[in-house]
Amino acid sequence: MKIEDIYTVLNNISPFELQEKWDNSGLIVGNFNDKVKEIYISLDLDLKMIKKIKPNSLIITHHPLIFSPLKKINNDSYSTKILKKLIKKDISLISMHTNIDKSHLNMYVGREILGFDFKKIDDFIITANINMSLKKLQKIVKEKLNIKILKTVKSHKYINTIALTTGSGMSLLPYIKADCFLTGDIKYHDAMEAIAREITLLDIGHYESEIHFSTLLNRLLEKYLKNNDKKAIIIASQNPFNYK
Amino acid sequence: MKIEDIYTVLNNISPFELQEKWDNSGLIVGNFNDKVKEIYISLDLDLKMIKKIKPNSLIITHHPLIFSPLKKINNDSYSTKILKKLIKKDISLISMHTNIDKSHLNMYVGREILGFDFKKIDDFIITANINMSLKKLQKIVKEKLNIKILKTVKSHKYINTIALTTGSGMSLLPYIKADCFLTGDIKYHDAMEAIAREITLLDIGHYESEIHFSTLLNRLLEKYLKNNDKKAIIIASQNPFNYK
Amino acid sequence: MKIEDIYTVLNNISPFELQEKWDNSGLIVGNFNDKVKEIYISLDLDLKMIKKIKPNSLIITHHPLIFSPLKKINNDSYSTKILKKLIKKDISLISMHTNIDKSHLNMYVGREILGFDFKKIDDFIITANINMSLKKLQKIVKEKLNIKILKTVKSHKYINTIALTTGSGMSLLPYIKADCFLTGDIKYHDAMEAIAREITLLDIGHYESEIHFSTLLNRLLEKYLKNNDKKAIIIASQNPFNYK
Amino acid sequence: MKIEDIYTVLNNISPFELQEKWDNSGLIVGNFNDKVKEIYISLDLDLKMIKKIKPNSLIITHHPLIFSPLKKINNDSYSTKILKKLIKKDISLISMHTNIDKSHLNMYVGREILGFDFKKIDDFIITANINMSLKKLQKIVKEKLNIKILKTVKSHKYINTIALTTGSGMSLLPYIKADCFLTGDIKYHDAMEAIAREITLLDIGHYESEIHFSTLLNRLLEKYLKNNDKKAIIIASQNPFNYK
Amino acid sequence: MKIEDIYTVLNNISPFELQEKWDNSGLIVGNFNDKVKEIYISLDLDLKMIKKIKPNSLIITHHPLIFSPLKKINNDSYSTKILKKLIKKDISLISMHTNIDKSHLNMYVGREILGFDFKKIDDFIITANINMSLKKLQKIVKEKLNIKILKTVKSHKYINTIALTTGSGMSLLPYIKADCFLTGDIKYHDAMEAIAREITLLDIGHYESEIHFSTLLNRLLEKYLKNNDKKAIIIASQNPFNYK
Amino acid sequence: MKIEDIYTVLNNISPFELQEKWDNSGLIVGNFNDKVKEIYISLDLDLKMIKKIKPNSLIITHHPLIFSPLKKINNDSYSTKILKKLIKKDISLISMHTNIDKSHLNMYVGREILGFDFKKIDDFIITANINMSLKKLQKIVKEKLNIKILKTVKSHKYINTIALTTGSGMSLLPYIKADCFLTGDIKYHDAMEAIAREITLLDIGHYESEIHFSTLLNRLLEKYLKNNDKKAIIIASQNPFNYK
Q1: E195 vs F150: CB contact, 8 Å cut-off?
Q2: Is the CB of residue D88 less than 8 Å away from at least one CB of chain E?
Q3: How many whole angstroms separate alpha carbon C183 and alpha carbon C176?
Q4: What is the DSSP pairing of strand B39-42 with strand B26-29?
């Protein structure tokens, strides 16, 4: 199986052209003509995980390894450390980031993982009517997304509508038209802004809300892989946070 | 007491010229010639708090109310909502942000609140030798900073040196030369980067690490206020987060 | 009557989307949901005028109060001084600037006030054949626009065609295809440029050429206001210049 | 006499390095090695004037002929029309603009032409105590600067201090610390701003306030020219405005 | 014959709108209304050539005389030296640069001068199948383009496909999909890049590959000139390089 | 021997801070703590050469491998192809580019290789009086720099002074104050500009003029290497050009 073939399949599933300007989705490491032995799917890469991956494989991640372009490959940053390991083991890397956020991931997490009837899609924001108490919503969110500690910014006791953006969506706050916004990486000033705008926030975790990328993509690739007598290996990057 | 006089005192304590380019510290609302009845000190402003403040007062906050310059005063943003209330009650506002971070706040939190022997100052980063287990450090940090849930990114079991930046310091990660970095608003990608760089992170909270601004400034102003037969009123903005 | 309703009517008269990039037309102070007691129309705002305006009113002006975005509300600039007064009296402000220049104002001043048969519209420039001596043109312009001292840059004795841009149009000189250009705020280097290009200039005054905004808008709103049993109050900002 | 020699003398009188970034003072047309037959001094160039100037001369003007750099020499702009005439007659051009404004011209106009005791210089702004009625000031200004129609923005009846910037100085308004500001090219919005700031304005004309450049420079060059048995010819560009 | 007429004819042949953003094709010196006695065509201008050209002529060149806009006409650069000569002799200049590269010149040189069956055009790149040894290709290129010393970067012995860009095309290397690229002005780092990409380069000379502009344009203008009883004079700028 | 040690020695020889803003000199691949088995010196890297280099070595080149920062490591560019090979063989790379041009290389080539008495250094330009015929100069240059075909732009028969910039120096033409300029990568428009400015050009080749970097650096490192019982291996990148 050549990288080019898989790239074409992925592009049919979620066109790379959909990505935002600042994004770096696509083939990040490797060549279109390279042959691939195994295919791995993961939210992210980390150093421990790469040890387990076989040489001449392809990894498909959600987050691009490289964001800021590299001028020197000599410091100890996350990108350069992992880049070196990939090159040494001839591992290729494709990332599907903002393109699949928009085309699939938000809706998948909202409907299939959380189980709410999300309908409206507006770029990165999806919205649903839920009509339940905040308490009940908190309970569902903790269970379904497997969140240990749920950080809440409370502006309402009862929630009619929720909006959802997986990952890190707080820059979208001015466009939220719902009682409650579910997203990850909520910072202090975001919370102050939400209170002034009378919006409730639930921090669903960048990791916890996007870890579902792997099962989603696996399912989307299933038919294609079967036809080629292949299976993708789902491999979990670790949640970097502990709570005490 | 005229605003100009207090401004001069504050500028002697921590020159406004020290602020970063992108900051907006200084007299944000009001006129230098206005007379001031009461002086309030707070980390931040919120709508409930303003109800309690007397007209013709001055508030001194840590965070500037306006960051992005305003072209329209008609939306429902935090800045414009509060701005209107201040103007209606003739309340003036001075903010001391990155200038006092550098000149006092980091060192105050590090030495007097946390009780460690911080010595080296490098702009926004202070460093100390502590030589203790991560467990013990976590315990001290939770107690001294009154943190309910401590988010940790664990790269070591034993910590020789710590670095500290109050507020939101993760953009400084590449410059950290310590085993463990204490700061607030730690996001998922920050955590992944720290693991690759083998740095331990403790999320000490933007709110919890900077709420001490009020007692700090009150102490710095004490002598001046006494000479003028005045007292500053410390007024607490509320922590926007709940944990469950 | 809600601001939102009037905004919609104004937007139907002259869509705010027509405005230039650098402009700030639209709802500048106030909220779409606010109710409005009185409606005032004026070319501009000044401090004396605001004293006469009732609280909870809406003012519709031609010139936007805010051009350069505001970071501090503590200096003594025109914008901030007036902004404070508006907020204190709960007065809302909508400005219709380059959108109505293009859609109505130039043509209204050219045809109805000056009485010439303007036909061609090219963005901010309208053109007419007039075929008369410069002397006669000067006489008409002074009378119709009520100009005390008419500043002229004379390149012809006889004028076949004139172009007109109300307000401050001299940056458009390279696009003028007429013997004579009527606009306001003509500066010295503009005049030198016009002489080299053999174009005659008549300075019709920024104030004198745009004061007609109020009667124009009043007429455009008449039907809507009648249906709502309302009347707009035309209120005149003062010409800041005296001549001696 | 070579251009280089005269350039050196001018540079000693008022260093070209003093000019603002956006300015284009210096040798604009001609070569440093060219020999010069006659020297002319003028505020500006115009097409009629160039007819009277002898070939192989040097003109020294206040305003630079070229501001926006030229990509095509085929349109009918002021700069390109005059540039062609200069080249055809081998006339060289040196301009002394913001350098001489700062070093001499403002002070010369303020003290020697207007006759006030200006003392403080702050870049382009000079300031004097005058203590007289606005009426009396208006009378003096009209007489001394030979102004036919004096445009006034009136904020006071009695003037203690005046500030002066020759030419077009209204962008300096926020820095004016005087009751009354004398400058040229005052536009409508400048006037509105001045009223809000309670500053009186007198429009002393861009042309009328800078025409004195020629006599000033002639005097500054006198000694050098005498030593070389030369005389500079003062040649007047025409005021482009007529008033009716 | 007026310049405007010839400009229109040229614009029909190869629309000036086709030019790249950074280009300066069009009427560079002269006015659309000027009458033209003689028409000259040349790749470029040089000082010797201008001596031979009659006053009141029009020159049509491939390369624009002015690239960087001019602020001063007093240094000894190529552009300003020649500009002065053109103005003094009332010679007008039109340049047809990237527009005619794309519409005609590449294809003319590829098919009619080199004699290969170029078919695909992709902006500035044309491609042909040739199927011959590099040696044979080198021989043909030297003969047909009259190249004395042929600089080669050799990555193949046998060439299936060639790409061609006249003038200076090395910035297009990443887009070349052929074994061998023919262009001029090949620099050292370009050559190193080509070796890594396994592309053969033949340096066909900026001058040698574009000197054919004159005969091409002459042919394209023939009919129009005949109808006006005119002939264009082809005048050769000199190759600046000697080889030893 | 650690990379850090060698880096320090190189920085003492020619401080990396001397480099131009756009340059990327320094440690480009590898880590300061890595140990180095062999040290190689070369003008440049190419794929053939890397095969011969032992793993865990350090290469010191003149030209930085990476100029444009990299976002993807999947295309077939020179930089990414070679980067992968370096990483796979654990080869580190330091480049000394514009810093050593200024501090040593120009003077070394001018005095020791060419044998002229260069004296004045002005950034990248060195100048010498030579007083000889162009013919004689051409002969010396060809011999000393081992240039097969010498490309000349001839403006003089006799040369009093020469300027020299190794590599690609034509952007410096406006600053050349000599009869003749020796540099590499001379393009057609550079040549036309030189003729207008009456400067003679000799194209001394980017490769031919900088290949001496290796012997120069070897000599500068000799003492340090001896003290560490090491020898540097000089390895020649190949001249990419053939002439026919």
Answers
A1: no
A2: yes
A3: 12
A4: unpaired
